[in-house]
Amino acid sequence: MSEDRSSFRNILKATSLFGGVQIFQIIISIIRGKVVAVLLGPEGVGIVGILTSTSGIIQRATNFGLSISAVRDLAEANETGSQTRVSLVIRVLKRIIWITGALGALTTLILSPWLSKVAFGNQDYTFAFIWISITLLFDQLASGQVIVLQGLRKLKALAKANIIGSSAGLLVGLPLYYWFGINAIVPNIILGSLSSMIISWFYARKISIKQISISCVKAYLVGKKMLVFGFLLNLTAFMGLATDFILRLFISNQGGIEQVGLFTAGFAILNSYIGMIFSAMSTEYYPRLSGVASDKVKCSITINEQIEISIIIMTPIIIAFMLFIHWGLILLYSQKFVPVESMLRWAAVGILIRTAAWAIGYVFMAKGDSKLFISVSIVANIYTLALNLVSYHYFGLTGLGISYTVTGLLLFLVNFAVSNKYYQFRFQTTLIKIFIYLNILVFLTFYLMTFYNLSYKFLWGIICFLVSSLFALYEMNKRVDLKEAVGRFLKRK
User: Fold this and answer.
1) In sequence order, which residues have a C-beta less than 8 Å from that of residue 358 and are 6 or more positions away?
2) What is the dihedral sign for C-alpha 253, 255, 256, 262?
3) Which of 41, 230, 323, 336 has the greatest count of CB atoms below 10 A from its CB?
4) What's the burial of 305, exposed, middle or buried (CB within 10 Å: 0-12/13-18/19+)?
5) pLDDT, tens digit, 9 for 90 and up, residues 46-81
């Protein structure tokens, strides 16, 4: 029991830590976006967006998905307790990081005239891309340091690096924009990447690495495994980008540009404010699952524990999201964006089922089963695109919310069926009971806010939120002993 509590406590601690980091980074991005919009105007914001997104595509194509594949290898090595094995993976990773970073920089440098032509319709920004090419090396080097911190689960150092890096980028960049305006865009992008690299290096350098000699053959074998799996991960990411692009074109042709804007704004809220919980959890969950991936029993227990904690935390957030999304849209955007309210409520219904699907889906990456991962991803992208197109054609934006929930259910069923067949994954009875109860609360809130027309429906929604919050506290206390945890935290402070 004490071992279970320790496991749950670690999950909750990591989620709280990186949830705070995500919130901080969102606040920083809001401040940066607002100030940049005021200082540079629409033209400057557009230039920043095009330069960063274009170089981002090159970076995604040349980084070989190391942020996932290398984390898995490093976490697996760390779980063995062998310092030699850990040092071997880190030394090979550092070599690959330099090679892939240089590849990204060189690719951007060579293609700079073409990138300027494609992105801006002329070659006026060729020199901008030439200068920015160095950031692909800086960003990849920073990514290598972050991989080491995440793979070895140095979570506090990783959180500090993220917070200080975001703050440094803001503090360095805004004065430059104030003094030099649009001319500061390229220097600001470069300095932002450089500061992130320096800060991540500062925290990663504290990790001691055993000095070992590596033969070229050994380095090739270890590195090949990272690169091949990472490359396949990147392919699935590009599939996701392609299906999203096709959907936006379809919406534009059927409903017009305004509908695309509403869709973009709606899912930006869903991905930014609900998705940050997933991001916070995955930072600790993925290396932890990778460490026990070879043991089917431990792997199954880890997934069950992650789903339990995740859905308990997520349910009050989802219910609050459904209650206040109307005012949230007006606050974050304007009254014109209220039409996506129905889409977001329908989408919110499927978040719990997607949370479970998300936790199970990580097992394919943790085990490095590239064929299975690619197969599941291809199937998921095909039915997701098909259902999105059909749903929008018949039900408009609301149909996309319905499709989000339905595809989440299909993803859950596929992930469970595959992991059950190949890895003998099972749901624990306790998790099944909690999952059913929390989904009832979510569906009840959805029904009240969507179909119930009485004036006091909001009051019933608040009751659902309070019940879910009390239930979350009760279940958390059973797993972590909140009183003891808070007391220990206060004593330490």
Assistant:
1) 278, 310
2) negative
3) 230
4) buried
5) 677 778 777 888 888 888 877 777 887 888 788 777
Cβ atoms within 10 Å of 336's Cβ, excluding its own: 12
Q: What residue spans define the domains of the chain?
A: 18-214, 231-493
CA distance 231 to 63: 8
Q: From residue 212, give the alpha-carbon distance in Å to each of 92, 174, 203.
A: 11, 44, 22
Report pTM.
0.77
pLDDT for res 33 = 67
Dmax over CA atoms of the chain, in Å, equals 73
Q: What is the pLDDT of residue 1?
A: 46
**pLDDT tens column, 118-173:** 778 788 889 989 999 999 999 999 988 988 888 887 878 888 888 888 788 778 77
SS in 3 state form for the chain? CHHHHHHHHHHHHHHHHHHHHHHHHHHHHHHHHHHHHHHHHHHHHHHHHHHHHHHHHHHHHHCCCHHHHHHHHHHHHHHHCCHHHHHHHHHHHHHHHHHHHHHHHHHHHHHHHHHHHHHHCCCCCHHHHHHHHHHHHHHHHHHHHHHHHHHCCCHHHHHHHHHHHHHHHHHHHHHHHHHHHHHHHHHHHHHHHHHHHHHHHHHHCCCCCCCCCCCHHHHHHHHHHHHHHHHHHHHHHHHHHHHHHHHHHHHHHHHCHHHHHHHHHHHHHHHHHHHHHHHHHHHHHHHHHHHCCCCHHHHHHHHHHHHHHHHHHHHHHHHHHHHHHHHHHHHHCCHHHHHHHHHHHHHHHCHHHHHHHHHHHHHHHHCCCHHHHHHHHHHHHHHHHHHHHHHHHHHHHHHHHHHHHHHHHHHHHHHHHHHHHHHCCCCCHHHHHHHHHHHHHHHHHHHHHHHCCCCCHHHHHHHHHHHHHHHHHHHHHHHHCHHHHHHHHHHHC
d(CA 488, CA 493): 9
Token pair 């033969």 in the structure block, residue: 215
Give me the phi and psi of 456, to 5 degrees please: -95, 20
Instruction: In whole angstroms, give the CA distance from residue 381 to residue 389.
Output: 12
- Residue 417's pLDDT band (boundaries 50, 70, 90)? very high
Please state, in angstroms and rounded to a whole number, the distance separating the CA atoms of residues 448 and 377.
35
Both tokens of 429, joined, read 């009875």
